[in-house]
Amino acid sequence: MAVVGLSGRLARCYCLRAVRSLPVCSSLRVPALQLHVSKTAMGASQKDFESAVNQVKLLKKDPGNEVKLKLYALYKQATEGPCNTPKPGLFDLINKAKWDAWNALGDLPKETARQNYVDLVSGLRSSSDSSSQVKPEADKKQAGYETLVITSEDHITKIMLNRPAKKNALNTQMYQEIMLALEAASKDDSTITVFTGSGDYYSSGNDLTNFTDIPPGGVEEKAKNGAILLRDFVDCFIDFPKPLVAVVNGPAVGISVTVLGLFDLVYASDRATFHTPFSHLGQTPEGCSSYTFPKIMGLAKAVEMLIFGKKLTAGEAYAQGLVTEVFPDSTFEKEVWTRLKAYSKLPRNAMRISKQIIRNHEKEKLHAINAEESSILQERWLSDECVNAVMNFLSQKAKL
Ligand SMILES: CCCCCC/C=C/C(=O)SCCNC(=O)CCNC(=O)[C@H](O)C(C)(C)COP(=O)(O)OP(=O)(O)OC[C@H]1O[C@@H](n2cnc3c(N)ncnc32)[C@H](O)[C@@H]1OP(=O)(O)O
User: Fold this and answer.
1) What integer pLDDT is reported at residue 57 of this predicted model?
2) Which fold, 46-126?
3) How far apart are the first and last CA of the chain?
4) Can you give the pLDDT at residue 106?
5) Residues 68, 70, 72, CA angle at the centre, nearest 5°?
6) From which residue to which does the signal peptide run (predicted)?
7) C-alpha of residue 110 to centroid of ligand 1, in Å
8) pLDDT of 143
9) 80-134 per-position pLDDT tens digit
10) Which of 91, 172, 258, 379 has the most CB atoms at less than 10 Å from its CB?
11) CA nearest ligand 1 atom 58, residue
């Protein structure tokens, strides 16, 4: 293959571009309409395919020119069908190599190309995973994430929200990266997975600037994409198979609070607060909190939080069952991590199976509630109440 013979920086640059120039990022931004095509007898679903496209970006090892061309060709075939562009000129080496690879797939059906793409990525991931397992420095920070810091140590995978200057507000990229991190953590050799925040906040919830990037389809498309992203995001928490722990180092707002109902342990610093100002924002509960909160704290207290936006102290959240234990801020990190390191030595399978027994009978219900909450929010985001509240925050940096 012409490009494989290219050496040095030029070849590397081309090949990285061959994969990077695929519309990976646009698929991250616009998962709408595509993510919920169900799995068919033909093989990989569109969602598996989207996920494989995202995983390519996180490969630890460069897969080499030939594989990148194969990925490129399968991607084009899966998304556009048989090669439909004119053959590039003889001296246009890069585009000719790409064209040849795509054209070589002939009339391969889109579904088969999609499946082959998913299989290829899965093979690349497992070989890169197994090579990383033997590395002695397996407990180092994982690369490939921009909004998170992920470390694995003492059988604990720690996912740290890392936008401290924005109080760890969840932007679209962070939602996507958290989903990828959860998927990876569900398969790694850790026994428990921990979320925490960097800086003084745990998280200020949804990044309100997420509402400003309007796609060509307008605000309706934006709302639809948001609802799909939200639903996928919360689904990952519902389905997460290992004990999931929140180390709430400071104030928590919005969606960072609601999903706590899907965690197995919530440890809080006495500096933490818990605030869900949905009505103030013209919005409604998500993260399955319309179901989990009344169940955890009783209807009256859940209503105070979810409808009236009452902010709870860590002590109040503990009294209402949302928080497992509160620690003084001065000793928080030390006490919590000592505890978690001890827990992480417990037998992995016993913990996983226990979680399954405790949670599985609710899963279907939680998925249905998540779908309903997401679709209600899709409408809410188009309401004057919501638009005005968000505009107010963005224009005046109004504090709630
Ligand atoms: C796919 C979409 C799914 C959506 C699901 C639905 C989710 C719902 C929610 O999560 S609702 C909750 C949304 N969050 C908020 O309403 C909080 C808004 N922020 C604030 O009220 C305040 O910033 C604060 C109380 C968190 C902190 O106040 P303060 O200590 O005074 O700090 P600053 O306000 O100066 O904040 C520093 C810096 O961060 C920016 N920032 C903080 N939070 C957010 C946010 N949620 N979205 C966007 N930006 C945020 C803030 O603007 C400052 O930026 P600047 O330094 O000015 O550039």
Assistant:
1) 77
2) Acyl-CoA Binding Protein (1.20.80)
3) 60
4) 93
5) 70
6) none
7) 42
8) 84
9) 999 999 998 876 778 888 999 999 999 999 999 999 889 888 888 776 655 443 3
10) 258
11) 166
Tell the residue number behind the tokens 């990037």, with chain if given. Answer: 213
Q: Could you tell me which of 78, 82, 38, 80 has the C-alpha nearest to residue 56? A: 78
**Residues with Cβ < 8 Å from 375, sequence gap 6 or more?**
227
Report the nearest atom of ligand 1 relative to the CA of 398: 21
For the chain, the domains span 46-126, 148-398
Verify whether ligand 1 is closer than 6 Å to residue 361 (CB atom).
Answer: no
| Residues 215, 110: Cα–Cα separation, whole Å | 26
pTM confidence score: 0.71
Question: Using a 6 Å cutoff on CB, does residue 205 contact ligand 1?
Answer: yes
Our answer on whether the CB atom of 311 is closer than 6 Å to any ligand 1 atom is no
Q: Is the CB of residue 163 less than 8 Å from the CB of residue 200?
A: no
Q: 181: alpha, beta or left, given left = phi > 0 and alpha = psi -120 to 50? A: alpha
194-249 pLDDT per residue, tens: 999 999 999 999 999 998 888 888 999 999 999 999 999 999 999 999 999 999 99
Q: Is the pLDDT of residue 27 over 50?
A: no
- Statement: residue 44 has pLDDT above 70: yes
* CA atoms of 163 and 146, how far apart (whole Å): 9
